[in-house]
Amino acid sequence: MGNVADAAAKAKFHDWTLTIKASDGYVFTSPVGKFNPNAFGLYDMHGSAWQWCSDRYSEKYYATSPADDPTGPDSGDDRVLRGGSWFDWPYNCRSAVRIRSIPYFRLYDTGFRVARTQ
């Protein structure tokens, strides 16, 4: 389960129509690691907050991109956001959905993931 627009959000925002019936108990973002990891062992990949990616955005990039680890075009002003947020339709809360924005854009449902390697 991810932190998406659900029954907890519907209880606070009665006019929301595209929520799921289940409730994770969090209207807004959820605590880190609250839900089970995905098949790759990664936590919190869907919902909670849109995650900035370093990739530049191009609407048609994937039509000709490498199959392994595509990094986006070499130039362009817009960057990629993925994962959806607590504020989004549940359909958008998946890694296959990507949106674009200018790098200095800030909003209450947008953030980034800090990763470390050992």
pLDDT below 50 for ≥5 consecutive residues: which ranges? none
**N-to-C order of helices and strands:** HEEEE
The value of Rg in angstroms is 15 Å
Task: Determine the strand fraction and express it as a percent band.
Answer: 5-15%
The overall strand count is 4
Number of helices: 1
Separation of termini? Answer: 27 Å
What coarse outline follows from CA principal-axis ratios? globular
Overall pLDDT confidence: 87
Largest sheet: 4 strands, mixed
Q: Helix share of residues?
A: under 10%
Secondary-structure class: mainly beta
Give your account of this protein's structure.
With 118 residues, the protein is mainly β. It is built from one helix and four strands. The longest helix has 6 residues, at 7-12. It is globular. The model has no long low-confidence stretch (mean pLDDT 87).
Blueprint of the fold:
Elements: H1 7-12, E1 50-56, E2 79-82, E3 98-101, E4 110-111
Parallel strand pairs: 1-4
Antiparallel strand pairs: 1-2, 2-3
Please name the defining characteristics of this protein.
mainly beta, 4 strands, four-stranded mixed β-sheet, 118 residues
Could you give a short description of this structure?
By secondary structure, the chain is mostly beta strands.
